[in-house]
Design a protein that fits this description.
This protein is an alpha/beta fold. Helices cover 40% and strands 16% of the residues. The strands form three sheets. A six-stranded parallel β-sheet has the order 1-11-8-7-5-6. The protein has a three-stranded parallel β-sheet with strand order 3-2-4, with helices on both faces. A hairpin with a 5-residue loop joins β9 and β10. The relative contact order is 0.17. Bound molecules: NADPH dihydro-nicotinamide-adenine-dinucleotide phosphate. The site of NADPH dihydro-nicotinamide-adenine-dinucleotide phosphate (NDP) has 24 residues, from α10.
Length: 283
């Protein structure tokens, strides 16, 4: 029976560490705020935005909220980003995705100065991560590395399979595991014999975006299983990409949904904001 990796507890630990750091920085005269921009009033996005503001308040940094109407023109949003880029007290800029269809996410991401790109989505941040240069790391994959390390799971030399190759989860996840000296394979929808491949993994990271796709037949006995997916099942209960109940019987450690990877994303966003205030982006 697997150890259940407690993302809620580990994320709380990180936020408490950051709170102390923010106090110290304040004493040195270093402060700053996160600017969060939401376009439209998608209910899920509103929840995420509220959680981000609450997290800023908890660790003691400022937050500026910009709630723009759904029909905001792309130029208007780009102009606001330009203005925030120029404000020294704004250390991080986050535009809540997805954006309405008439706005190019690509243009918006590229408009944020890399020094304020706390989501780590700007091509410069992505490139820096790939070569191990200083830059903000994307929050969900960086959070998974923290979950694994703080749970005492050895990464070096381990065979890691990442299922999913999205720009926000799968690809950066594979790069960060490589940086930790794991031997990494990325699987996707065209991968042949996914089951056989997953069964070789010491660490299996699943970011497929399909509810309860990965069952026990994909998992080697004693493997560590990280479930990135978030879905609602037929009873409106949250679930992940992994069949938690059956996989926990043979894994050595597993993340639950909710309470696994999810809370880590926001903790790492706060981590990036504090790095921004320190003026010292992580490499
Ligand atoms: P995407 O839909 O962008 O990517 C899914 C990936 O899974 C693609 O690379 C796709 O392959 C691959 N895939 C799909 N079907 C299969 C299959 N049958 N076999 C193998 N690979 C397959 O999703 P995201 O990466 O954005 O997100 C993944 C999940 O994580 C979602 O449930 C999302 O809600 C959740 N999420 C959770 C976060 C958190 O904070 N916990 C943060 C971000 C995401 P291909 O490229 O070939 O199409």
């Amino acid at each position: 029976m697997a150890v259940i990796i407690d993302g809620k507890q580990i994320s709380q630990q990180i936020k408490d560490e950051l709170k102390l750091k923010v106090e110290k920085l304040k004493a040195e005269g270093k402060t700053g705020a996160l600017a969060v921009i939401q376009v439209g009033d998608d209910p899920a996005s509103s929840v995420y935005v509220r959680n981000k503001k609450n997290a800023c308040a908890y660790i003691g940094i400022g937050s500026l909220a910009y709630e723009l109407p759904e029909d905001t023109a792309e130029e208007e949003l780009l102009a606001l980003i330009g203005e925030l880029n120029g404000k020294p007290e704004v250390k991080g800029i986050l535009v809540q995705l997805p954006l309405p269809g008439h706005i190019s996410e690509d243009k918006v991401i590229k408009a944020i100065r890399p020094e304020k790109d706390v989501d780590g989505f700007h091509p410069q941040s992505v490139g820096a991560m790939a070569i191990g240069a200083p830059g903000f790391l994307p929050c969900t994959p960086a959070g998974i590395i923290q979950l694994l390390k703080r749970s005492g799971i050895e990464l070096e030399g381990k065979r890691c399979v990442v299922v999913g190759r999205s720009n926000i989860v799968g690809k950066p996840m594979a790069l960060l595991m490589l940086r930790e000296n794991a031997t990494v394979t990325i699987a996707h929808s065209r991968t042949k014999d996914l089951k056989g491949l997953c069964k070789q993994a010491d660490i299996l990271i699943v970011a497929i975006g399909k509810p309860q796709f990965i069952g026990a037949e994909y998992v080697k006995e004693g493997a560590v299983v990280i479930d990135v997916g978030i879905h609602r099942d037929e009873n409106n209960k949250l679930c992940g990409d992994v069949k938690f109940d059956e996989v926990k019987e043979l894994a050595s450690a597993i993340t639950p949904v909710p309470g696994g990877v999810g809370p880590m994303t926001i903790a790492m966003l706060m981590h990036n904001c504090v790095q921004g205030i320190e003026g010292d982006r992580e490499g």
